[in-house]
UniProtKB/TrEMBL annotation:
UniProt-recorded name of the protein: Uncharacterized protein
Top-rank taxon, per record: Bacteria
Organism: Nocardia huaxiensis
């Protein structure tokens, strides 16, 4: 059983958020961007072009 592209992208974004961890000293623009992408990913359809755009952006194959 293989994961869909959307599931693989979601897993990658969550992993990045967990590995980066929060910076209590300041707002991390990159972390906010990853979180925004994850929020959008959660509401789009599996076949939405945005899923492929994120896959390319985050190098998910």
């Amino acid at each position: 059983m293989s994961d869909s592209l959307k599931e693989r992208v979601r897993a990658k974004l969550i992993r990045q958020l967990e590995e980066d961890g929060p910076d209590p000293e300041q707002d991390d623009v990159r972390r906010v961007s990853v979180q925004d992408d994850l929020d959008i990913l959660n509401v789009v359809a599996d076949d939405d072009p945005f899923v492929e755009e994120l896959a390319a952006r985050y190098l998910v194959f």
